[in-house]
Amino acid sequence: MAYRGLSEAGSHRLETVAGHAAGHASSTPSTTGSTDAWNEIRKAPGTRRQSYAAHDVIYFEGDDARHLYEIVSGAAMLYKLLPDGRRQVVEVLGPGDLFGFDMDDQHDCSAETLVSTTVLVFNRRDIQASSAAQSHLTRCALQQVCAMHDHAVLLGRKSAYERVASFLMRFVPNRGMAHCPGPKDENNDTGVVSLNMTRQEMADYLGLTIETVSRVISDMKRKGVIRLEKHDRVIINRICGLCQLTGTHAD
Amino acid sequence: MAYRGLSEAGSHRLETVAGHAAGHASSTPSTTGSTDAWNEIRKAPGTRRQSYAAHDVIYFEGDDARHLYEIVSGAAMLYKLLPDGRRQVVEVLGPGDLFGFDMDDQHDCSAETLVSTTVLVFNRRDIQASSAAQSHLTRCALQQVCAMHDHAVLLGRKSAYERVASFLMRFVPNRGMAHCPGPKDENNDTGVVSLNMTRQEMADYLGLTIETVSRVISDMKRKGVIRLEKHDRVIINRICGLCQLTGTHAD
DNA sequence: GGGCGAAGGTGATTTAGATCAAAGCGACAT
DNA sequence: ATGTCGCTTTGATCTAAATCACCTTCGCCC
Questions:
Q1: Among candidates B167, B141, B133, which has minimal Cα distance to B153?
Q2: Protein CA at A101 to nucleotide C1' at D30, angstroms
Q3: CA torsion sign, B22 to B28 to B34 to B38?
């Protein structure tokens, strides 16, 4: 596999100092409230459970798309490569997210775990047979379209600073959307985010270089917006403050 | 509507000098081979036909999403605005393409025609009722996800030159994909593309400025890759040559 | 516990593309 | 025809981010 920064680490679990229930805050599916019908499919005879170590490739772009995957625990990313090695991470996925449901019979992206991950592997045929499963799949696809729209705005129109801020906000639950409820506790608008992605992975997701990501993070630290522990654990000092930096909200 | 370059013109019909059947070459749905079941829905009592002039807004981001649209003829775009006026066009749609099927009950993008356009307007309820309709919708959504993945690569990792080349190739039918058949006629690898989008719309789609788009096009002209007639009609002198400039294919 | 390799940070420099500023050019209306 | 308005092109300049180069820090294994 032709690629510069091989082997990176990540996950996108989330915790909050403020003591929220640690929900899944990805802008992609999440689809936590899976239907009963979908639960049926989970138990279908063809369905199996599989575990991967961190940075394992689940499939490559161009592989036959015979299966469909749901993340049980862990995290994964989908990415595409250009022939000269440039990489774009197109989706970051967490528990409950579906992937591998490409249009054609070939996968349009490569899929790789960020951390050690367990997935459910479905047969495409089983899904096609059940209309309930279909409708679950449709919901996931539509949510992914919306997520991609937001990401297109980020990639096409946002500054490096705004991209990193948007990225961090992505993992803060119940905050940063159109009608943000604001901090629960007026005096403690903090949060802790475990990125568990390398700088290279973040860069490839945000359409930046590793150096730029690093610089922006350093600058946010310097400005007191965030604090770091262990490179991939970020303490957000004022969530609202960070949100202002995303560019998506009027001042 | 807060936006700098108001009122632009466009469409994305396509013709080829080489005399291909003038197919729809959009990387988005196209879904020409609509199923019989979908044809049923087209005739449902709640379904109506509506025409718009060029640059009419079909709906705004945030509007209640009560309907779903299919383009009969013409072209449209979906876009998002940042509060300071930056715009990102997230999709360009042609005949057969579906839009307005957002996850939530609010549209996540604004929709605007590029040229005078006729659409079919469906009730969301009708769609939800029919599982055949659902499956058509799923297909469209999945194709859109793939298209967005490609676009993410373009926005995140391609140079201005590569973006414009990719954009032009998008309208050349049966060419530029992974297994491109090459020119039918060895000595005549030309094509004519009617963009029918303004430079501003192209720029907002490609994540560039209007000046950069203009400069790249001028440069391609100078280098003999393309020829122009009337600003929005592009004659591609060597399709394979243009394809080499997209960055997606190994040299 | 020290050495090695991978990941992260930071400074100096370059550059692609943005921004700023004028002209061209067409289409339409007077 | 002539003026006007919007769009496009082109040139000059600026700048955000890339590139290049190097150093620091961390984790791991002998």
A1: B167
A2: 46
A3: negative
Q: Are strands A117-123 and A67-73 parallel, antiparallel or unpaired?
A: antiparallel
Instruction: Report the distance separating Cα B12 and Cα B25, nearest Å.
Output: 9
Could you tell me if A143 and A97 are in contact, meaning their C-beta atoms sit under 8 angstroms apart? no
Sheet holding A87-93, edge to edge: A57-59, A110-113, A76-81, A87-93
pTM of the model: 0.88
Which among B98, B149, B177 is the top mutation candidate for probing chain A, defined by the most A β-carbons within 10 Å of its own β-carbon? B149
Nucleotide nearest to A86 (CA to C1'): D18
Comparing CA positions, the residue from B177, B160, B168 lying closest to residue B233 is B168
CB contact under 8 A, B149 and A101: no
Residue of B nearest to A203 (CA): B156
Which stretches of chain A drop beneath a pLDDT of 50?
A: 1-29
Task: From chain B, pick out residues whose CB is under 8 angstroms from the CB of A86.
Answer: 157, 247
| Contact at CB, B145 and A150, closer than 8 angstroms | no
Q: Is the dihedral of CA B26, B29, B34, B35 positive or negative?
A: positive
Q: Which residue has the tokens 């649209």?
A: B69
Residue range B139-172, pLDDT digits in tens: 999 999 999 999 999 999 999 999 999 999 999 9
DSSP-assigned states of every residue in B90-121: EEEE-TT-EE---SSSB-SSEEEESSSEEEEE
Give me the total of CB pairs closer than 8 Å, taking one residue from chain A and one from chain B.
Answer: 133
Contact predicate B88/B206, CB 8 Å: no
Would the Cβ of B231 be found within 7 angstroms of any atom in strand D? yes
Within 10 angstroms of residue A245's Cβ, the number of other Cβ atoms is: 20
